[in-house]
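Why does residue order matter? Because the sequence determines the fold. Keep that principle in mind as you read this record.
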Amino acid sequence: ETFTFWGSRPPASVFVGVEELRPGHTRIYAADGTFTERAYWTPDFPVVRPRDPATADRRTLDECAAGLSERLSAAARLRMLRADVPVGAYLSGGIDSSYIAMLAREACTGAFHTFSLRFEDPEYDETPFQRAMVSVLGSTHHEVIARHQDIAAVFPDVVWHAERPLLRTGPAPLFLLSRLVRDNGLKVVLTGEGSDEVLGGYDIFREAKVRRFWARHPESTLRPRLFERLYPYLTRSPAAARGMALSFWRKGLDTPDDPMFSHGPRWSSAQGLMRYFSRDWRARTAAAPDPVAALRAELPANFSRWDPLAQAQYLEMVTLLAPYILSSQGDRMLMGNSVEGRFPFLDADVVDYANALPAKWKLNVLDEKHILKH
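Structure:
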């Protein structure tokens, strides 16, 4: 599972004899050691297949944006006001953290602290956007630069606190960022994590849309050129290694109706890392259950009737959001420096509302125009 989804899926863990509680579940133990477990929240999306005009959502984009803004404002305000210590905010320079920081600033009555991660590599550095937002917020701002040597230096601590195998160095800069929060005397920060999953922000959602378009005419040489539009900001964009990129996105192109179509390329790419295992390890894991098949067997009953974007969002939530984004890259990097992270985008009311949005609006509802307007 780790070398497919980037993290093991609860209740499994990488330690023998150790279970993880499933997200959205409670477990109650009796005196004799037995327990009962129940789900209090699971991701759910509207059924759209077959389409029923009687149940069609007729809200406009403006109405959707206003409704989402109202729920996010309430979620951020709740997390600011129900704290007996000062609360700061992460500020990456992107839309999600900037919006949360703005809502937090509105709910904050005293000094407001923001924290940003800068990168030595200009391709990933968003300092101008961070500082532009700081000037709007009027916050007391703190920055830390993530250099290659800094990431290497803290990586042993990162692995220690993650308590699981890591396939990338992404958690290391966030460990440096939470250390910056601690060094400045704060214990709680708001973050924009969760927005990409509930609002379709990741490029994997757009990739799936382009791949489905390509799959209708797989012999086309023009349709795959759309991938070049997804990453214009990257020096090492797919356009620079077009043959390899197209080979990646072509995986599963013959099964566009597969409910797991969106994530096939990523999962098969991650599984390629298993060729680095020792022969003995590969032999011992050869008979292990296929994690993708196991996930398929657990999909909700109505999964095939959801919109393709909703299917992709669900897969992102249950394979990446909980085990990786919120765990090894999120909470564990925060708590490694004794800092508590709060996630307004993952407030149950916000998620339920966002999940119910018409798919045609999800990729646009949190854009700059509507943030400024609402």
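The chain has 16 helices and seven strands.
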